[in-house]
Structures are given as C-alpha cells and as structure tokens.
Amino acid sequence: MARLKVEDSKVIEIYNTQGKAAAIETIHATYGVKDAYYVLRRLKATESYAYDSKRDLFCKKVEMPFLALDELCIESRKNSIDKDVDCRPTVQIESKFDSYVQELVKERFMEYARFIQANSVDRIWRINKTALKSAGYQLELY
Question: Origin, by domain of life (predicted)?
Fold first, then answer.
C-alpha cells in the first residue's frame, strides 16, 4: 500500500473520541505509516492544535486578532518594569580570585600547546611524545 498524506484533523478527531490506540491503528491502516508515534509527536508540536496532557486531548488553537483589555494592562506594566530595569547600568565585578584562576588556566593551556596540536579540518590530533616525556609527563592512550 502506498503511503498517503496524513490528514491531521481526522487523526485528531479519532484520537479525541476513540483514544490513542485507535488513532495509531488508523494511522497504520489508512495511511500506511509504520511509525505512528512520529505522527503523534508531530501533531503535538504543530501550531494549529494544542495538546492538553492532563486531559489527553487535542484542542484547536483559537487566535484572537485583538488583545483583551487585561492583556493590554499586563503588557503596559511589563514594559514599564523593563524600562526601569534597563535604566540601571550593569557592572560586572571581576574578583581578583577569578582573574588569578583564569591566568592559571591560560598558563596551563600554553604549556600543553607545546606538546599538542589539533587540526580541526582534518580532525587529527598530533602529540609530540618525546617532548612530552622529556618534560616529565606520561602519555596514556585508551
């Protein structure tokens, strides 16, 4: 049987009235889809329907072209709060300890850079084994 385009509205109607098992069986039998769970995941992620996990139902999303009065009031309050927060200058305080730790990490990486070279294009790591051992390090590959 050739695979057909899955009609979302019919599958959702069956899911809401007869349940998940019936919807999966319909997807298998009618549309020839082997993995019906993928179709259900796609339906749950679609923007035209909302999935309510508590009731285990799909609901048609209703978009209102205009905002309600309550939404407008909430938006105006959010905007005024955001403006107050944005007016304050943000100062990032860097402690002496943080800068010291960063310096130690940089020094350690510079030391390792003497022995290790990475080529991201070829995906090759080159390690100078003799220089590594002469500096007192041990190399262990696993």
Answer: Bacteria
Q: With respect to residue 19, please indicate whether it lies within any of the assigned structural domains.
A: yes
Question: d(Cα 34, Cα 54) in Å, to the nearest integer?
Answer: 27
Bridge partner list, 81: none
Domain assignment present for residue 2? The answer is no
pTM of the model: 0.42
Residue 129 makes CB contacts below 8 A (sequence gap 6+) with: 139
Helix (H) or strand (E) holding 114: none
Given a contact cutoff of 8 angstroms between Cβ atoms, the answer to whether 58 and 15 are in contact is yes
Give the total number of structural domains in the chain: 2
**How confident is the chain (142 residues) per 10-residue block, as mean pLDDT?**
73 90 89 84 84 85 69 64 54 77 91 88 90 89 84
